[in-house]
DNA sequence: GTCTATAAGTAGATAGAC
DNA sequence: GTCTATCTACTTATAGAC
């Protein structure tokens, strides 16, 4: 959320809010205009078309994700620290932007071509390093045997999934849990780190 | 996918395919008609409106999920077996219906009101039982201390998330992994069960 | 840059023939 | 039941005044 009060930023803030919560297909230019306190014509004056405006927001989001990876992989560390860093960084991102998981998953499903070569390259680089690190730890017997891609999927699932289920869980869960679901999300960092550590640490190292 | 070759079933099969992959907002009645090999007017003759047709498909999906829960919770078993049953049943469901996770998460986000009292009740009942079972095992020291809701989220994330990322992972992952991503999904049952078991089993029981 | 008014296209829904 | 043709409403996008 940019603070500069220019019209362009007002539009971007409004578009971010609407696109993230509703997705491309269900978003309405009128709603974005209302949210920005301007009219539809001005949206087109600044961004030409709905799709171009959406692309701008989508790029922002992907860049935010890539920036997280950059901060995590810029220095060397052992795998467990790397895992903890990933959990900490991304749960912080998600706590501030809870609609992000569903938004990204959706748009990647519906428009995988938006995943441009550039961004793809940025993410793939870190991913490759991460998968290699996992394989090395497995080979060295330092963590329980697991295919690196499986561990990646497990970690991402533990981090991301709860943030995609907020309306779901807050509806179906027992009344006693509903008021504390927000607290639950806050606790995810600690819980996920512990869960992963317990799952990958070999028994031999415990005894 | 119903086999009866009645027009109604042809429509339902087409609608299921289109709604599951595109979601309500992006789905087009024309596309459903084409897919069913009939024309738009006939869709309205059979189901009155797009929304009513969607509701029918959505209900089917929720009922499928509820049926899974029913099969799992109909008999008594220890928590670890229950967890294994949940993993087995739902990964089987997802292997046959890979668009289900994103479809459900989306529609629950966009139209939580569709989660009718009836379905809500069906699911909440089993959920309550499951959460209680977890708490009892924690209290008895049989599994590592964890808030039941966190363990639920962890299990669901491990099961569901990979199936929501199929286009994503198959694009960004290294070439060497792309051809085997299908195999990876097949392996999820075994991997997830092992991962959960390792994570929740107390050290004291290992030594 | 910002607005009002309107064009152009699309999608859901209906009328009516067969 | 099934079709073609059409209506109506909505949505994106543009023209043109200020």
Structure notes:
With about 210 residues, the first copy, chain A, is mostly helical. Chain A folds into two domains: about 1-50, Homeodomain-like (Arc Repressor Mutant, subunit A), CATH 1.10.10; about 55-205, Tetracycline Repressor, domain 2. Helices cover about 75% and strands about 0% of the residues of chain A. Chain A contains eleven helices and no strands. Chain A has helices at about 5-25, 30-35, 40-45, 50-75, 80-95, 100-110, 115-140, 150-165, 165-170, 180-200, 205. The first copy, chain A, is globular. At the A-B interface, α1, α6, α7, α8 and α9 of A face α1, α6, α7, α8 and α9 of B. Chain A binds a DNA duplex (18 and 18 nucleotides) through α3.
